[in-house]
Specification:
2 copies of one chain form a homodimer. Chain A is of the alpha/beta class and 467 residues long. Chain A has 15 helices and 16 strands. The first copy, chain A, has 2 domains: 299 residues, Aminopeptidase, CATH 3.40.630.10; 158 residues, Glucose Oxidase, domain 1 (3-Layer(bba) Sandwich). The first copy, chain A, starts with a helix and ends with a helix.
């Protein structure tokens, strides 16, 4: 009965405010589509700065640029939060070929995986053992692996509608393949690129050796899907062909970097914090437009749109541009640790790190009660074709902010094209559509607007109504 | 009460069949994503054939190619339906410049509108009067228009979420601008391209002179959005600048062409016809990949997937590749006239002519009762993120099949990028994403599967249940 009264209270509140909310949300979408800054910011970040690997000069340029841009918005506060980040460098361009007979070689497209060690200076050449995953590798005898290059060739499942699920079903071979192959005496690892596209781009991404001793750490690289199929096809005819690759990437000492933070202080509940963010670092090949330049500029635009539309937040809104999501998550962890240390009550955090494509909705990591409240707002998004409100994960960078009582969320754009670009040289500005990017920014701003207005705890709405 | 019993009957029927339906629909999506033919067919249509203007050799090549491909599918019947189509030819590349002072010129990108007359052989040069639409033109004095080039520069409304609505709010200036300006003594018409993108592509499209006498018919061309802004900006500083353009397009006599039709004859209700189609013709600039190569190959794939999955239709399924949607609609009219003449009962027709982007759902032109039935199927589409089931228009080519008792529908893909490519040289194969195209084909096939299984009249479902 108490629950029914509560729901009724929410319903009444929603109805009273629906008109204003619909109007304000329309104003937000109009502003983004007519007068958004996301695309212009992304143009600079992608084309004037480019790839922003943690610890690189470009990453520092991106810190400076975004800080300057946030300062121009007239926020209440803009600052840098220091964080030590790993520094991995790719070195010279990688080189690889398939040798079908002595002197008979076919060049293929590879790139070192992030965190990989280099090959020996002259490269490594060996026979190849193809497996479809780590289980298949482990089922082999050590003698079948020793001295060989292990070729992980499991494809992403093309029948999964959400391509992130297809990625999730495959990425273990990239992340842990070299560690497992190293334990069995392999001399190198080649991994099929994590993409559903059939093309010549190798896709990098993070990998780990766990606590493997140095002498078991072997070089690992991604190979393009076209070349993976080539290699696999050749192996079927002649299992004795050799693969050669050479890379001289290395892990250096940690260096100082920053999360970039901007804030509009709340007028009524300044001690309730709402975070919106993306990650400022990217891989070094491509310019990181979709991953995650898009999330960065959209998050900046959320705060800008509050200023632009004149909607004054009751709670404190923060944009956080996290450093080092790709190969360490140090920025996300640091921000959460600092928030905890200061006792800041983060009621909501929203991340955009799934590309700048047409937004379809959000996934929410929260209690049933909060989800019920959020679902009551869904009709407000219908005119914008936002239909996906589901419980699920949020995002890597906001994840460490999780508390029992708060709400985390991730923007969920259309995922069909994402892995065509993810971690590859094809992640460039021209692959981003202006309107799709702007619709994402508006969708994020609208949700932040509602969370700011109503808070996340239904009890509070009830109390506001009685005021 | 009768209505409630009816609805209950539908509900029971839906529940009984939901399991099988979900399984079959999953099979359809899996087939399309793993083993679709849409992308391969579109590659040929776009890259080996190219632009397919009605009456052109390429249009005839497209007729031959698609007929051959349908014949290979083992359908029950494949044939060509003759139809006379208008033949308009573009002639030599158009040429245009802005003259800011004698000899001081800036070249701009234009293309003749489909159906336009040529300029005089040496082109036309005149002062420019800029208007934001036909109403503004009509409000002018004849003397302000006479001897001038009218420049229609109304922009598409970027705040509309469905870009087709933005197109609909602007296209009158392209379609009827030259007719109205001709009546007032103008010597030429330049129209801002119908796109939300800011770039250098002029976008063609159909226009009409109505029954205007020949001597009042003036040449009309589209200008790229970048150049439209250039021209408008210059006019603000100096209203005396001149515009020159030259084009030698012309309308020839009608020629014979064809609709391409393939059929799987229904096993139980062969006299109930279900049509799925797109249009085979396209504009001549670009290769017509999105408009409407996508709809053509998706429609072909619908019938292929019935063969591939082994689902035997109870009703007669027809794929119709309509000729001449772009500048005459003769194919659509012809097909409907023949259907009527033969007394064929077309219970359902589905058109895909909104680009090969991620499908969001359908719009339906039907009775409330049929719509209620269709809405009951919506949960079956949820796993595929298909959420948009609304009443509305269907498509130009299937429109003439409208009857009181039947259902027409249009596939509704994401519309954000559509007008970046529509009718422009940028409508090319590389702008189509394979998965997005295949998801569209699967979504169409799934709806056709349900319509075929249950029919469109709720009464019939009730009867089937009692059998």
């Amino acid at each position: 009965m108490k629950k029914i009264i509560l729901l009724l209270a929410i319903l009444i509140s929603v109805t009273i405010n629906a008109q204003t909310d619909a109007e304000n949300i329309k104003k937000i979408y109009d502003t983004s589509l007519s007068n958004g800054m996301s695309y212009q910011w992304l143009d600079y970040l992608s084309n004037q700065i480019g790839g922003r690997l943690s610890g690189s000069l470009n990453a520092e340029r991106a810190v400076e640029y975004t800080k300057e841009q946030l300062e121009e918005l007239g926020l209440d506060k803009v600052w840098l939060q220091p964080v030590m980040v790993p520094k991995w460098v790719r070195g010279n361009p990688e080189f690889a070929y398939i040798e079908t007979a002595p002197g008979e070689t076919i060049n293929v497209n590879i790139c070192a995986l992030g965190g990989s060690v280099s090959t020996p200076a002259l490269g490594v050449k060996a026979n190849v053992v193809e497996v479809q995953g780590i289980d298949e590798l482990k089922a082999l005898d050590r003698k079948d692996v020793e001295g060989k290059i292990v070729f992980f060739n499991r494809e992403m499942n093309e029948t999964l509608i959400n391509t992130f699920n297809a990625y999730g079903g495959c990425v273990d071979q990239r992340y842990a393949g070299a560690m497992e192959a190293g334990k069995m005496g392999a001399v190198g690892v080649i991994v099929r690129s994590m993409t559903l596209a059939q093309d010549d781009y190798p896709h990098t991404g993070s990998m780990t050796y766990g606590d493997l001793p140095n002498n078991q750490r072997i070089a690992s690289a991604a190979i393009s899907t076209n070349d993976a199929d080539k290699l696999s096809g050749m192996l079927k005819i002649d299992s004795d062909i050799k693969f050669y690759f050479k890379q001289n990437c290395k892990q250096l000492k940690d260096v100082l970097s920053y999360n970039v933070i901007g804030e509009i202080t709340g007028s009524e509940y300044p001690n309730e914090y709402i975070v919106v963010g993306g990650h400022l670092d990217s891989w070094d090949i491509g310019d990181g437009s979709h991953d995650d330049g898009a999330g960065v500029v959209q998050s900046m635009d959320v705060l800008r749109m509050f200023k632009e539309t004149g909607i004054k937040p009751k709670r404190t809104l923060r944009v956080v541009l996290f450093m080092n999501e790709e190969n360490g998550l140090r920025g996300g962890k640091k921000y959460a640790a600092e928030a905890k240390r200061k006792g800041e009550n983060h009621i909501f955090a929203l991340e955009s790190d799934s590309g700048g494509f047409t937004p379809r909705g959000f996934s929410f990591d929260c209690s049933d009660a909060n989800f019920e409240q959020i679902l009551s707002w869904k009709p407000l998004f219908k005119p914008y074709l936002i239909h996906y409100f589901e419980k699920g994960g949020s995002g890597a960078d906001v994840g460490p902010l999780k508390a029992d009582s708060n709400v985390l969320a991730g923007l969920r754009p259309d995922s069909q094209r994402y892995f065509d670009h993810h971690h590859a040289a094809s992640d460039t500005f021209d692959a981003v559509n202006k309107r799709e990017l702007e619709l994402g920014a508006a969708t994020m701003t609208s949700l932040v607007y509602l969370i700011d207005k109503y808070g996340i705890n239904p009890i509070r709405i009830n109390q506001q109504l009685k005021d």
